[in-house]
User: Fold these one by one.
Assistant:
Number 1:
Amino acid sequence: MAYLSVLVLLPLAAVAWKSTGEGWDTFWASVSAPDAVAALKLTLVMSLLVVAVNAVFGTLLAWVLVRDQFIGKGLVNSIVDLPFALPTIVAGLVLVLLYGPQSPIGIDVAYQRAGILLALMFETLPFVVRSVQPVLLELDREMEEAAASLGARQTTVFRRIIFPNLLPALLSGGGLAFAKAIGEFGSISIISGNVPFDTQVASILIYGRIESDNPEGAAAIAIVLLGISLAVLLLISLAHRWGTKHDV
Amino acid sequence: MKIPKVLVVFLGVVALATAGCGGSSSAAGGKQVKLDLVAYSTPAEAYADLIKAFNDTTAGADVSFSESYGSSGDQSRAVEAGQHADFVHFALEPDVTREVDAGIVGANWQSGPTKGVIAKSITVFVVRKGNPKDIKTWDDLVKPGVDVVNANPFTSGGARWNVMAAYGAQIEQGKSPADATQYLYDLYKHISVQDDSARDSLATFTGGKGDVLLAYENEAILAKDAGEDIEYVIPPQTISIETVGAVTKNAKEPAAQDFLDFLLSKQGQQIFADHGYRPVMDGVTSANYDFPTPDTLFTIADLGGWSKVKDEFFDDQKGIMAKVEQSIGVNPAA
């Protein structure tokens, strides 16, 4: 508990303290400024989209890694984690080079919202894969076979057996991905174009507030981000608890 | 695939920054005094040569350095928060003023012969090779179909210099402050990318985005020397960029002052000039660059000085640039 306090709670409390350092009016003015509202909205929408996309494709990828056998599977399995290892700023650069104005394959999504999406998808991919994978590994295949032998179609098997088992892992992976996405800075600062009201996300707006000698404003926006993350993570853990109690 | 140059330059910057974060890259042992140098990122290469030359002087023979480079604002806040520095060098005067307010740098830091200015540059237009869009004047930037790249003025000191260059150029052409402000509104309609630092903007531009990049002359020189397919145009009216530095109050003396004196000596300025910076004194020429004089060169003091300009233009709520940024946000389509 002390460990958690020193590492997490104290710094968060300090941010909260700083954000209200000039009173609630200033706090409200900071977070309701038009550029702040626009950046927060964009950040939220992008992060939710990314979670949705990665929930689908992350699960597919995990499925392939667990259920299919192919040459080089071990290698692919290790590659999944690379987005964590790569400095985010380098990730942004590489994405711009591949999918920017000089794209060798003719795809240009840099400096627009699609670019933000791409960077976030890249950065958050491992979360869903890594939380779903172990559950899939331990999933009792006899359950599926039993259902199939009783005449259940494949979709029914997935809906009634596989999906409910995966859901908790999917939720926690998605929650982590969401939390990472709304705070992402490095790769987005390179690929987004960073135009206020269009492609500027909250983390970069916060940086702008700090550079403009407005640390209170920066802290206020950070608190909103933290609040949203906390709410999402809490909701997920509630859903999880509800799920285990009611055994869907 | 034409990738490597930008990537290499950038990885170099990342590596430098990381080394800087580590905090120490001290020179050979056996030296008597060690100075902590905290500076913004672009003069890192120049300092490598400057320190070598300083070590060859009598005053500098016994001095070793621990160098730290990063974005000007970040570095300034780090020193304010307690990172030790004997000598600081920042891109913008307010970053030194912050140390004065914190009691780290003496209030008289501008009493020297150059008023605290360590090295100079100007804002230039970086264009594609052959200048296909024929960019020569500030008016050319706001012509239909011209895509301009400038970093975000709320995160980048370099971008602030460029904004003031654009504004001041209008004033120098006889426009009223209101009309000059209108020019900023027009200009920002042409800016589609606002990276968070000047170096990122350069990478964006060399990566193929935009027709014109607003940049420090020394950065343009650096990129051109690195073999990028660019050239640069000196605008008819532009601002004299003054990067500033100071010895801190509790610096190790006389080494710190000796180092500052060396930077401002003819030899020191020669090294800066060889790295693309304009010298702070007459009579220093570079073998590599001729530093053509713009038709009209103005300073930030002509526009009221940084303390006034900072509030008037760069306040994140009430500043002119906050309003300009809002005005371009009317089309939030994805």
Note: Chain B touches chain A at residues 1-3, 6-7, 10-11, 14, 73, 77, 94, 98, 152, 154-156, 191-196, 200, 203-204, 207-209, 314-317, 322, 325-326, 328-332, 334 (CB under 8 Å).
Number 2:
Amino acid sequence: MTDLVRQAQQGDHAAFQSLYREHVGRVYALCLRLTADAREAEELTQDAFVRAWERLGSFRGESAFASWLYRLTVNVVFMSRRTTRRRAQRVFATEDPGALERPAEGREANPGLALDLERAVAALPPGAREIFVLYDVQGYGHAEIAELTGIAVGTSKAQLFRARRLLREMLES
Amino acid sequence: MTDHDTPPEFRELRERAARLPKSIEPPRDLWPGIETRIAGKRPGKGERGRGWVPWVLIPLAAAAVLGALLLSRRGALERSGAWEVLRVAGLPVVGSAPLGASGAIRVGEWLETDDSSRAVILVGDIGHVEVKPDTRIRLVRALRSDHRLALERGEIYAKVDAPPRLFFVDTPAGTAVDLGCAYTLAVDSSGNGTIHVTGGYVEFDWSGRRSIVPLGFRADTRRAFGPGTPYAEDAPQGLRQALAAFDFANGGAAAVRRALAAARSEDAVSLWHLLERVDPALRRDVYDRLAALVPPPTGVTREGALRLDRTMLQIYWNTIRRVAWRKAILQGIRDIDPRTGTAR
């Protein structure tokens, strides 16, 4: 466990802010790809860090802080997804196709390729997009995804196949 | 979750996904909002932590109970043939009663909005429908295999994430069949309307007449005529007028010839629909123009297409819809050749 995490656990806001600065890019990227909605991703990023603060005491260093935080973020996104009101008010990918076009630090060397894939991922149906992001981008396994999202392992596999098939069709050149 | 688990045809995609940037900076600093929300609070201990203060849990427990009640209410609604409805603005009416912040619409009931009210209907657990002002809509069926509304007049925006053919909207001019999509559907007081698809595909059926409307396309609908030929959002005015004349005003061969003259490669979806709708004598002209705009793929012959061979038409459609889809999805990102769908 790092000193920053220990200090934050003692209630040190400055230390927690440093943790925020260190991890906000990855948390936001995860939220943005799962929701395909920039505004919702901002809200969920804030929710994730607030939740992290509220649960910081339960982090015992058994895994890396980053892993703990990203897993908590996925939980926050899926809890939010289950909230009917937010779901009803959600702005969908097709209405916000520019959400992923924003220039950002850390883009890969060929930005055209990344943008193609980002745009295509954002255009996937939500269920397929979420599984693709968790499996192929974040590197979770089907069992972990099932645990995190509450769906069956078989459903996770089926959605991944659906997502990959749709993406391949979109990205053929 | 190694590459051994990934079928060879998806490995390149997986590698590209793995190369995506792991970090994207948000467009604004989100810390001030977080700082405000955690101000004055100590870091929590979680479920297993020390310093467990029972009174802190009271609001959490209340929220959990409320959440469970809402979920069980929603499940009960679905089992009893009803869907949840949320008021967005004004005073929508369900049945004969004004809608509160939320409520339910039961099979057979109407939801009506006036010029200043709006509502959202949650379509079971597969999507939602935004009901715009001045709209009258009825819940027809609430089955897991048949989620069905009837739009008498007004406008809705529907977004569904489910396998195809589970969500339907009946209108006076036919039925919109969800094929995994998002769309806006408008019906005027005489029963005529327009469907505009913003994601996926919608099939619109009336009395054996069928239009498949992809992302980025529209189709006009007319009572007693059904769906017209779909056309691209940016279709030339001349094409739209010619299609309207052919579909709804007995424009005949002259209208078809005007449509063919005005069509671009981007309008192949329209011409593909015309293949089945025109007289056999005119079909050759339609096919030849279509083949010039989007070359037919392997497996499609002129003779087969002219005799409306189902398999060949489907193969041709798969090519046309894929080209149209890539053009729409990659708009502004890649310059897509509308003849082939490949990047130029």
Note: Chain A touches chain B through 75 residues (CB under 8 Å).
Number 3:
Amino acid sequence: MMFRNKKGAEYLAKKIIFIILNILFVAAFLFFIGWKSSGAGVYEQIYAKQIALLIDQAKPGTEVTIDISKLYEAARKEEYYPEKGLVDISAEKKEVRVKLTSQGEGYILKYTNNAVVVWGENKHYETFYIKIKPKGAE
Amino acid sequence: MIKYKKGGEEYLSPWMFIIWGLIAVFIVAGVLIFYSVETDIRTEEADILTLRIADCIVDSGYLDEFIFEENFDVFVSCGLNKEVIEDTEDFYLYIDVFDASQPEKSLLGEPIEKGFKEFKMQCALKEASKVAHAAGCSSKKVYALSKTDSSKRFIIEIIAASNQQGVVE
């Protein structure tokens, strides 16, 4: 109706398709970047590394409580509610494991400190507690 | 608006999709690299190791001369886990002690080297040419006094490296 000739209508249709494709393209990237920056995988890595570095640096007698509410937030997004908590420290293997999804076994990082690590997770306050004791003080 | 009819028709050409594909590849690669770099803590791990060693062999500015004894064990003295450092091939430690008046002569005879020895070369290359994917390195020279001889000064050279990437299971 608006265009007297067919070519004009075709030109407009092509332009609209082009704009829609551009919007879809940009939206897909915004979604990808958002997903990558707030994904469970990133939080698993960040917290496992922070906790491992904290243990490596700590001297016997150190007691630290860290806020892990962001981990709980990420786990809730993934609908993952484990009984035993999101963070696990293996004294035998000297490794920190953070797991925020039901798939896989999470992210694992080793620490080099030979001290005894006493730890606990408070699900109510969404905090993680670490106490470093000298070797042999089990 | 568009003078040339052909130019207007080229909006949805295969070239456009190829260009979009290229942009997509670069953006995805960029984002993946950005997030992997942001969480790279290998240099911090190496830094912590050098500080830990310096802290355990130097006490209030004095060298713990137990380091010169044959039965000195860096793992026991510095509270480091031997299995993690020696068995994983992810870590490297190097310690040498020099007399400050003769800094070319090692007082240990043989430097203490633990872990994956190839990292020493990687650290040297990284320092010289900024190799991006080499292990995270930390190198420190610490000055210390002698507990037994007040005129004696030591230079302790400590190098630590970590290439721990973590495991996604």
Note: The first strand of chain A starts at residue 63 and ends at 67.
Number 4:
Amino acid sequence: MDLILEGIKKAFWLLITLDPEVMGITLLSLEVSGIATLISLFFGISIGVAVALSRFTGKKIVVSLINTGMALPPVVVGLFVTIFLWRNGPLGFFGILYTPIAMIIAQTVIATPIVMGITLAAIQQLPQKLRLQILALGATRLQMVWILIKEAKLPLLAAVMAGFGGVISEVGASIMVGGNIKGYSRVLTTATVMETSRGNFDIAIALGIILLLLAYFINLILTQIQQRTRPR
Amino acid sequence: MIESSPILEAKGIQVIRGETILLDISSFLIHEGEILSLIGPNGAGKTTLMQTLSYLLKPFQGEIFFRGKKIEANHSVLEYRRKLAMVFQEPLLFDTTVFNNVASGLKIRGMKKSEIHDRVIEQLDRFGISHLKDRSAKTLSGGEAQRTSLARAFSIQPEILLLDEPFASLDPPTRDSLIEDLEHILQQTGTAAVFATHDRLEALRLSDQIAVMNQGKILQIGSPDEVMNQPVDEFVASFVGVETILTGKVIKQNGGTIITSIESQEIEVVGDARIGETVLLCIRPENVTLSSHSSQERTSARNVFPGRITKITSLGLYQRVHLDCTFPLVAYVTNHSLEELSLTEGREVRASFKATAITVIKKGET
């Protein structure tokens, strides 16, 4: 019991004093996951919208693939990104394995299907006739797509949150492709794993609290958004 | 007929999905300032025709001309669409304020903010929804939402307006007040409009021309009076409210009138047909008068038949009376007359209707 109490006490001390190591880890986490989410938004929304709006044979297969991708196990992503970036792998010449860039790539691969799947569903749930109405208002195809995205803005915000939430709490891929190098590629999750295995529960708890707070705020915003969608 | 050039013309339009022909229209014309109603049951092709006219649906074959200029699928569609406005059965509003909804068509056209503001205010005022300006479109009632949708359509000052059953999902009082306003606004702006509805009374109220559609075809197009009183075939007749349609043979022909034989009875009709020809007689229920069997009351009607009441159904303000006069006949009587004549099922009465109140359709010739 002492262990936990002591741990929590020390954890708060680390947080209140803005311990440089803990802060560095937190900032890097936000940076890596933030950039990965931004990139995944670009690919996820554009491909998601394109698939939702077009008709082609095999669309059902593509949609189910995207939905499967939403549950992509991070360790599998870590494995394949590692293989690709391995010194004599296909992209080995970049020399970016065990760097934050590799972590951004892995997290982008994890977040993109999540954003894509939610975007797809969001656009598909808009009434079919809305597209006709937009075109009848004189919109070009591009204007139509933009208006549809704006119409789906609330579920799309949810996509952002889900994507970010998915990667900030992910540990498998980050540890595999980032290497958990101190002061360089160590993020909240990988540090928590390491400190716990070393028995440094105080730091581990501090990191855990930060992760929980992040998760709480993400869900708080998500809930707010969902409450706002149905004013009636 | 209105003396002006056609604003919109469609020729040889066919829309085919799979094996079925959804639409098959040889020619369709609407003039400047004209309001044309498309009436027909669900699935008649009204919506398909509307979407084809706005080029939201590319026809399998056929051409559409706007002010004499052919619309080309590749380059003039956008230009064309920006001259028309369309309102659907659902308001299809955007998730923003009423003001921004009404402004949306103008924003799409890249109009200046100050200009947009003035135009939107004008339309909001016109449709009586100025007070809702800053409300979220999601919080509107059905009537308010459809007003917003109409204001959005009018704000772009369309040269032609396509209305696809815009009142179908509104309750009667809301619908009535909105139709009244729309009628007034259409008159004021002189905008040509195509108005699809399955309600013939709505059509009668608004239109200069009525086209009756069924199974992807236009069966008849003409003034409301023509369509209501001279339906070209059985389908049109029953759709415009004729309840009795009898098949008979012409046995005598005398100047402007013919005598037809139906179930061993003779009915005199004003019209023209050859002896021996088979014709359909359309009798509107409001043109049939009932009197008590014993009454010796003189009537100017040429056709008087004894009959027995087989069924009475209430239509609210009046009653629909089904008669057996050896041929079936339907009459409408007011609740008051029903009581006065003490009409009940099984009673014998006299039914009369004028020779001029019957529309003759020659079979096989239309």
Note: DSSP finds ten helices and 20 strands in chain B.
